[in-house]
Amino acid sequence: MIILTGEQMFTIIGSMAIEIDEPIKVGAVFSRGEVRPVWFSWKGRQVKIKETAFTWKSREGHAVILHFSVTDGQGLYEVCYNMESLGWKIRNAEG
Predict the structure, then answer these.
(1) CA 23 from centroid of its chain's CA atoms
(2) Residue 31: beta bridge partners?
(3) How far is CA 62 from CA 19, 22, 31, 59, 89, in A?
(4) Cβ-contact 6, 20 below 8 angstroms
(5) Could you tell me if residue 11 is inside a domain?
(6) What is the DSSP letter of 87?
(7) Residue 52 parent element (H or E)
(8) Is the dihedral of CA 91, 33, 61, 25 positive or negative?
(9) Are 73 and 1 within 8 A, CB to CB?
(10) Is residue 15 included in any domain, yes or no?
(11) Exposure of 93 by Cβ count < 10 A (0-12 exposed, 13-18 middle, 19+ buried)?
């Protein structure tokens, strides 16, 4: 099922997960070669990250993408940092 709202497109995956590909603002700590997101703004609210469950890397062309599976205690989100463009996106949300 695909839901179109304005210029954004969301795809429902299973019963609760939503696939998103949307730029977001992120507050992050960059220390000793590592990146740790602390909060992000999405849909008009600020989501404070309580825990990072998983991290992994992928590539999009020449760009290295850092993926973070994070929770605010209520939902699970995948936020990504593009090391080439220095931009953040939210890719998935559940809950």
Answers:
(1) 9
(2) 34
(3) 23, 20, 23, 7, 17
(4) no
(5) no
(6) -
(7) strand 51-60
(8) positive
(9) no
(10) no
(11) buried
The pLDDT assigned to 90 comes to 97
29-67: burial string, b at 16+ Cβ within 10 Å, e else: eeeeeeeebeebebeeeebebeeeeeeeeeeeeeeebbb
| Single pTM value for the model | 0.81
Count CB neighbours of 79 within 10 A. 24
* 57: in domain: yes
Mean pLDDT in each 10-residue stretch from start to end of the chain (95 residues)?
41 64 97 96 96 96 97 95 97 91
Token look-up 């179109």 returns 4
Give the position of tokens 């205690």: 73
* Total number of domains in the chain: 1
Residue at 72 is within a domain = yes
Do the Cβ atoms of 49 and 39 come closer than 8 Å?
yes
**Domain extent for 49:** 22-94
- Distance, in Å, from the CA atom of 46 to the CA atom of 50, rounded to the nearest integer, reads 13
